[in-house]
Amino acid sequence: MLRKLLDALYDGAAALAALFMVLLLAMVLLSIVGRELGFYVRGTDAYAGYFMAAAGFLALAHTLKKGEHIRVTLLLNAVKGRYRKAIEIWALAAAVALSALFAYYSVKLSVNSFQFNDVSTGTDATPLWIPQISMGLGAVVLLIAFIDELVLEILGKRADASSDEMLHNE
Q: Rounded distance, CA 69 to CA 107, Å?
């Protein structure tokens, strides 16, 4: 039950990221069409940036869970057994700590922007807490995903990185 809930959380965040990608496309197209037809819609550049950031942050956890984050496996490939497991646990514990700091300060930034009524300096004058929510949400979901990976590694249920990992680079 918990596994289904976590997977639904990661998939939901990825679906939101995809929605923001579509919205990003809409902003870019609106800007292009406006330029060609001689009209300007205020804030299209700013909103394109907000949507791009939202798509990136909300996709982090899903990307991690699908094994698509970049990993440096030089050391891992050199060790086996309990040493490899110890390195994996250490790396995941460090990732949990760093993502916890990232999530905390991302949420704190959004709350502070709301409390101080901080608005963008562009022509759109958007309250900044609104686009910052996606960063905080993405960071919290990433933290949950790293905790999930750490627990799975400790329990010995974490899927090993595939042997074709080297083929994933571009």
A: 23
